[in-house]
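Operator note (shift B, R.M.): manual run for ArsR family transcriptional regulator requested after the automated queue skipped it. Running by hand, logging everything below so the morning shift can see what happened. Input copied straight from the record, untouched. If output looks odd, do not overwrite the archive copy; leave it for review.
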Amino acid sequence: MTKLKHVSELDEETLFIVSQTFKALSDPTRIRILYLLSCSEHSVNGIAEHLGLLQSTVSHQLRFLKNLRLVKSRREGTTIYYSPEDQHVMDVLHQMIHHAQHD
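Run finished. Output pasted below as returned.
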């Protein structure tokens, strides 16, 4: 197991990435999108339809998640499919969902 650095040893870039990741996970819409993508890849339209969201809302949130490298995309013809890029973050998301649902 890797030892964590003492808080005073965290550099600014690490602090920024961690805070932005938690920011991404603090939004219910982004959580719903990430959870859906953790089950299988989807296109923007597929996400919008499945979650009952506007396509523009999904596109905006995916752009935010992609900039943080939490999701990745692949093109198939004219359709772009999204899936998780960072399994560590997906593990944290699933753990928090399990925690919230735990009796």
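Quick read of the result: The longest helix spans residues 87-101. Strands lie at 42-43, 71-76, 79-84.
Leaving this for review. - R.M.
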